[in-house]
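Moderator note: this is an archived Q&A kept for reference. The question asked for a predicted structure of one protein chain; the sequence and the answer are reproduced below.
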Amino acid sequence: MTLDHHGSKTSGPDEQGRATALSRRGFLRAGAAAGGGLLLSLNLPFAMDEANAAAADMFVPSAFVRIQSDGQIVLTMPYVEMGQGTYTSIPMLIAEELEVDLKDVQLEHAPPNEKLYVNPLLGVQATGGSNAIRGAWGPMRQAGATARTMLVLAAAKRWKVDPASCRAQSGEVVHTPTGKSAKYGELAEEAAGIPVPESVTLKQPQDFKLIGTSAKRLDASGKVNGTAVFGIDVRPPGARIATLVQSPVFGGRVKSVDDTAAKAVKGVHQIVKLDDAVAVVADHMGAAKKGIEALAIEWDDGPNATLTTAAIAAELEQATSTPGAVAQNIGDVDRAMLGAMTKVMATYQVPFLAHAALEPMNCTVHVRKDDCEIWVGNQAVTRAQAFAAKVAGVPVDRVIVHNHLIGGGFGRRLEADGVVRAVEIAKHVDGPVKVVWTRAEDIQHDMYRPMFVDQLSAGLDAKGMPVAWNHRFAGSSVIARYFPQYFKDGLDPDSTDGAINLAYALPNMHVEYVQVEPPGIPTAFWRSVGPSHNVFVTESFMDELAAAAMQDPVTYRAALLDKEPRAKAVLELAAKKAGWGESLPQRAGRGVSLQFAFGSYMAQVAEIEVSMDGAVRVRRVVCAVDCGTVINPDTVQAQVQGAIIFGITAALYGEITLKEGRVEQANFDTYRLLRMNETPVIEVHIVQNSEPPGGIGEPGTSAIVPAVANAIFAATGKRLRKLPIDTEQLKSA
């Protein structure tokens, strides 16, 4: 989800190392913590980008750092951990400036409170869009630096010495001339009474001890030894287990239910009938599933009973023949096309995609007379709380939410539909109930990455270089539903991300978007969202232009990047490390892609081979990434590797199709994931610099897909413009 300005810069220190972007009074407040100690309240700016944040007059609370009198440092984490390393990288920012060891920072899940814990780049309390580090970079460091400064001032006041003669190190303040020292816990209460400094000095990059080092994941041990608690692990005392079956057609309803056999299943306690679903409540999941299988349900399929994927694709293609909202216009494309020596045209199509997180949707709920308690793993906890309150019929402040670790989000858990279902069921159950979706329900009732159809045309000059670029595409807008306030004049920043503001120098460029919502099919954010569609299209088409010009794809791109040195650098680095231009066996090829998304520059080279039966194997992927200042290199490596595997899955296998209104895929046999023996060698080369951090959780997913498609063209001469890869077209190609 990329609601922050594409490529916006995070505020950082000036030449003197002083924070320049935020008012100290507006940024931090200090006070005594309950039980004694120092409580620092960070006020993060609400803004769509950091530049706006710096100019904003209004600041809202967002996170708390607590230093207790026993020396414990507690960070109430406003972001959620779903495998991306947030619970390590953000504490590193605090620990760096506070001069403590990373292991000394303890974490607490933030409760739902948008006034306190708003994500400054999204405007809501949510984790998504690869922006946790981008949003936390300045504020968290300033929080640590402010706490450090106040502790030093407290020590100097106690010892009646010049603060300049004191320094913070390893969780204590030391008076350099005498060697006298005091631990942070001893100074916490005194520090709480000191006025917040007007300005503080942030550490310079050359002085970093933690930032830029490979830190061990703080959540790793709990995940290894089984003590980590995910949403699906929770079971309050007395809780029953439920699973459900929903209308197989979106928009359908329950016509009738015969639950006689289901009630006879040992361990089944209750059948809950809803308008469009039926749930079985039992002692354990096995009994609940057997109860579901024993139900005899007659469905009213409703208005979408005959819906097919082909019909949706036809509607989208038809929509691309009509003008859309203008997302970007540079120069005069029509005039440039008239004078072009060569014209290239292409139609692309990408499918609906499921999230298929390994932890299926689940939520535990206890609905009482006057309140509702929820245990869940969710990326947007205040949204979940608000939806639950509406269904339960209680005030929002009477909904207690316990948020937990997430076993794969990918955007799926930005949604509250799983919480809504659980509350609907729990309203009929006396006591707590844990609702767990089966894998089939998880895939067949997902909220999908939208399907898109794109029409592109370009004009090339006598040297084969682009003089005109025209792009019109049609598909669903997730933003229009999720953040309607950001859908303006037929456009939103997610649907167009990766289609506009390209790194390439294109003198004449025109991009239009046509919003088309598929009947009844819910669409949602999916890892790398807009770029997951647009980068495949733009980078595949750029490859087509290079082929039409009979030029090398890397050389062709590089010629268009003279004004984007960071983009050019990652392109050249990836090509060099991949051995671009070196010979390969027959039916093997290399493909390249380049993107600027989520504030990071990335180039990938995929090396593939195509068997005579059309099967594609990705053998090696080389990625070069410039994501600005790197907090934890291990996290960057892991994030890119995981994103590449996620993207290869989408390129080779990912597709949700409908027949007679029903999703045809139901499990990992029909919605395949890339398997361990199919996973390529992945190399990640990080460009080191001191630019503000960019996002890293999602870029790898969008960059790999066109690299694979372009490699297939290099190996076979077949240009595949529709995903997933159709192996039939590659047989003996």
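Archived answer notes: The chain has three domains: 24-213, 231-302+361-436, 309-352+448-730.
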